[in-house]
Structures are given as C-alpha cells and as structure tokens.
C-alpha cells in the first residue's frame, strides 16, 4: 500500500453580513459565514458551471434560505432549502447549468 495524501487549498471563510447573495462561478470552493440577524436569501441562478460548490454557515440568528432562478433545486422531500438552526450549514453544488443539489443541516418540512 502506498501513501496517499491530498490537501485542498486553504480558503479563509468569507463573511456575508448582508441579507442576500447570488451564487457565481467566481465563489466556487468558498465557505461563507452568514452573520445577519434577518433571513439571508441565497439565489442560485441558471448558467453556472457544473461542479461549482459553495458552503454557507448560519452564524447569525437569521435563517439561510436558498432559492432558484431558472434552476431546479434538488433537496430531500422531507426538507426545505433552509438552514435548520443557528450554526447549521447548507452546501450548494451545481449539477448542471439548470440544476443544483442542496444538502446540509436543512430545516424539516
């Protein structure tokens, strides 16, 4: 057996203090700390590159809500595309230019 080690490049978390953001190809691989006390809306537009992945952390009291704009959001049928509670995370992965997988600590329906 050989040794195998691979590390992802270190990315410092970015703070989002506002209440909205649109996912873009340029933020691929980022971890975003959402600190607002109000609802934070993350919009997933169509046309993003497959494989783009962004993680959002609900650090503040405001729940993170994911909405699609011209894309189908793929989530478990027992969940809403929102964080469950403070310190929950949501990970968005673009599957195709019009389809995104939403996973993480999601709020139940």
How would you sum up this structure, described in words?
This protein starts with 13 loop residues before the first strand and ends with a strand. It is about 0% helix and about 50% strand. The protein has one domain (about 15-109): Sandwich (Jelly Rolls), CATH 2.60.120. The model has no long low-confidence stretch (mean pLDDT about 95). The strands form three sheets. Strands 1-3-5-9-10-7 form a six-stranded mixed sheet, with no helix packed on it. With about 110 residues, it is mostly beta strands.
Fold topology:
Layout lengths: L13 E3 L3 E3 L8 E4 L5 E6 L7 E6 L5 E6 L2 E3 L4 E5 L5 E8 L2 E6 L1 E3 L1
Parallel strand pairs: 1-3, 2-4, 3-5, 4-6, 7-10
Antiparallel strand pairs: 5-9, 8-11, 9-10
Please provide a brief summary of the model.
This protein is mostly beta strands and 109 residues long. 0% of the residues lie in helices and 49% in strands.
Question: Which key terms come to mind for this protein?
Answer:
109 residues, six-stranded mixed β-sheet, three-stranded parallel β-sheet, mainly beta, Jelly Rolls, single chain
């Amino acid at each position: 057996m050989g040794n195998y080690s691979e590390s992802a490049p270190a990315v410092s978390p970015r703070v989002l203090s506002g209440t909205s953001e649109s996912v873009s190809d340029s933020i691929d691989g980022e971890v975003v700390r959402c600190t607002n006390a109000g609802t934070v809306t993350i919009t997933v537009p169509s046309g993003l590159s497959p494989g783009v992945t962004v993680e959002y952390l609900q650090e503040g009291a405001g729940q993170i809500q994911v909405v699609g704009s011209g894309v189908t959001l793929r989530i478990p049928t027992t969940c809403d595309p929102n964080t469950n509670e403070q310190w929950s995370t949501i990970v968005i992965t673009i599957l195709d230019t019009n389809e995104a997988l939403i996973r993480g600590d999601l709020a139940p329906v």
